[in-house]
Amino acid sequence: MITAVVGLLALTACPGSGQTADQSSPATAPGRPRATSTQLTPPSDRSSAVRIQLTLDGHPVRATLNDSPAARDFAALLPLSLGLSDFHRTERIADLPRKLDTSGAPDAPTPQAGDLAHYAPWRNLALFYRDGERSPGLVILGHLDDSQDIDRLATADRVTIEPLT
Predict the structure, then answer these.
(1) In this structure, what are the phi and psi dihedrals at residue 2, rounded to the nearest 5 degrees?
(2) Is the pTM of this model over 0.85?
């Protein structure tokens, strides 16, 4: 045990592999780009997003729709007033007047609390107040702007959805 500790101290005290402590690592060597954090949202999602207001049992809640064909089709239905029911203690659901355009939708995303989604097989709107499970036919439309509003979804019986101008 003592031999292992002494060996470990010797390795950390002396630079190994011919590289001194002040040499650049391959990631920061001159001529190499530095790694930077990137935004996962494509620019088109940010610039073309549609802001909406949900009124949940009289309480205003803001959300942003993404720039997908399904979200644009959903925005064309607004304003809407819908009764909500609970589904699997995870989401509040309501029937939409029609199925939305889901062309180009990604394969079965995993919904997160605060997501607004369309479940195409049942033609409904799903408002997730807990993280959900992957489900073929589910298309994320947008997300609540403030995570503190997620709790309102769990007990809401009625929602009115309008575009913000």
Answers:
(1) -65, -40
(2) no
